[in-house]
Amino acid sequence: MALFQIVTDSCCDFPAEEYVRLNLSTVPLSVEFRGETSDDRNDDSLKDMYAGLRAGENAKTAAVNPERWRSAIEPWLKQGQDVLVLAFSSGLSTTYQSAQIAAEELAESYPDRRIRVVDTLSASLGQGLLVWYTCQKRDEGLTLDEAADWVEANKLHLCHWFTVDDLFFLKRGGRISGATAVMGTMLNIKPVLHMDDEGHLISMGKARGRKAAIQALAEKTRELGEGYDNSTMFISHGDCLEDAEYLAKLLKEKYGVKNVYISYVGAVIGSHSGPGTLALFFMGKHR
Known about the structure:
The protein has 287 residues and is an alpha/beta fold. It is globular and about 55 Å long. The protein has helices spanning 16-21, 46-54, 66-78, 95-109, 124-139, 144-154, 167-172, 178-186, 210-224, 241-255, 267-273; strands at residues 4-9, 25-27, 30-33, 36-39, 59-62, 82-87, 115-119, 158-163, 189-195, 201-208, 232-237, 259-264, 278-283. The strands form three sheets. The protein has a six-stranded mixed β-sheet with strand order 10-9-8-13-11-12, with helices on both faces. Strands 2-1-6-7 form a four-stranded parallel β-sheet, sandwiched between helices. A three-stranded antiparallel β-sheet has the order 4-3-5, covered by helices on one side. β1, α1 (16-21) and β2 form a beta-alpha-beta unit. Helices cover 43% and strands 25% of the residues.
């Protein structure tokens, strides 16, 4: 039996088989699309949602509430396990705050068990990469507190760099103005963004055309990743697999990356970032 159980949420954007492989528990956020509410998902059915978004349809999302966190954490406590919760960025959702509420309530009922809740300040496969590293630490024999302390010490070194294909999704979310979205679309300007130390999405630059934006993402690994073991990097994409594979090829051929893990941007995050989102995650000297 593991020393403790890691519980995360679906915004780490792993497909179902990855949770099993890493021995993870997960609690899903929810998404409302075409009048139906369902759990966040990361599978082939996403292509239909992205097609709808491209056609102008909308999706709404909801955070994990405390009750759902309790239902995910409590079974492990009943089995005598301690629990480490790694939650979606508090800068983008109330999911982390709900996990804290659930942990405080459960601590009263299970005074002999340890529960630690960490705000990853991360999203998508950035959160996923942080969870992946934490699973390695667990399997190396670190205690719950040692693993949680490692996350706290390293989460601001987890670099999130991404670009989007359609500026109007960022405009809808209040990230850019309507005028900027119109002008950028007319000039084929693609923003280069990252997640800052407070877990917010910040525009950091722009590139003329999609290919230049992808090359700018790859260049960030040279700029920020020196001195870190980035033999494995993660890429998530909003139904643009060819672009993800092109970025992976750049990383391997130009920057010597050995392993690149590629997965969809899940339904919840994809509802806000839109089709054509392409994101790169790696360890660096700062975000």
